[in-house]
Sequence to fold (201 residues):
Amino acid sequence: MPRKTKQLDMFALFGTQEEGLEKTVSEEARQPDLTKNNAEHFGIKKGHLTGLEYNTLKDVFYGMNQFSAPKQMLAAMNPTEILALYAGIQGLKERFIRDVKLPENTVFENLVSAMVSKPLEVSGTLAYQHNRSRKIYPAEPGALKKRMAALPSETKLKFMNLLEQPRRYSNAEKTPAEDFYDPNCDGHSVKVYVNAILRMI
Fold:
């Protein structure tokens, strides 16, 4: 049975309340170009990963094994934002035993912005990589939220539907469900996760 405790309070941590959604006509007219990140692997390279700590790499790997975010969404993000997104996916999924149910008032751009922000706040090494690495898009406060808000509604809906799919477990989590293989199940190697993430991108 899925865990039912305080879903709305938990999701409030991820910025799902409808706030700050007013748009002026001029803002609507200034739609950003959301196709700039057309690089191989969405610009993610080994250098983005090698300096990250073990737990952050594990969260990114586990998040990627939950589901693949829509390509149109990833093309509208900076490489380190993508890594943070996948870590955020795992951070949200692991709060539930199996099923995730988003509140009806969930706002896509608020949710994604918060899911990216949380790992950047928790992981000093990921924040360092985000601050020092070359940006494809502006990364000032609020910039990611604006980009996400400008995505087509079908892309937003696809991501939300994927997020609500049942949580997937690895063989290392010792549960009846073994949905994917964790190559680090017998060790504690940063290198193993770096290589595994690079293969999945």
